[in-house]
Amino acid sequence: MQAFGIDEWCSRLRICRRQAELMLSRGELPAPIRIGRLRRWTGEQIDAWLTRRTEEAGHGAVAPGPGRPRGSAR
Question: Is residue 71 part of a domain?
Answer without folding.
Answer: no
